[in-house]
Write a structure and sequence with these properties.
This protein has four helices and seven strands, in the order αααββαβββββ. By secondary structure, the protein is an alpha+beta fold. The protein folds into two domains: 30 residues; 126 residues, Roll (Nuclear Transport Factor 2, Chain: A), CATH 3.10.450.50.
Amino acid sequence: MLIRLIAAFAALAAASCNGNIYSAQPMTKTVRPTVAEDVAAIKALEDRWSRAFLEKDVRFLEHIIAPEFEVHGWRGGRYSFTARDRWMEGARTWDFTEHPSEVLHVRVSGDTAVATVKGKLVANLNGQPLRNNEWVVTDTWLRRNGRWQVVFRYADTLPGTCKVGCGGKTE
């Protein structure tokens, strides 16, 4: 009798926990997006990112750029590094006149995505030409609490495209 009673309590406890023996709270199932949906979301975020520069939508940029965001790459024949705060300052102060982009590829693996994007940047600062070049970037995105944020960007200027802001060189 005691064994039947223990078995009945165990079955009741397991049923009330949806099979999770570590929690007395019912478990809810989270529906994960498909890989195709994640790829579409990253492409949309990359496209919106490009438009945000032209529209001075700093609020959107603050939303997608993770606190630990960094940009690394080669510029003017030398390695460069830009931390988030400095990069965001440029987003706030530069006058972007052209910033078209094309997402070339997105690869998603779980809560990580890597996007390769090609584009053009024409920007002024205080009425003076600051940058005019074509580029390719690789962005690393992480999904956190259900939303995507970019944590790392590797950027390169495409050879022969830099007209202004080439780190002292004109190609």
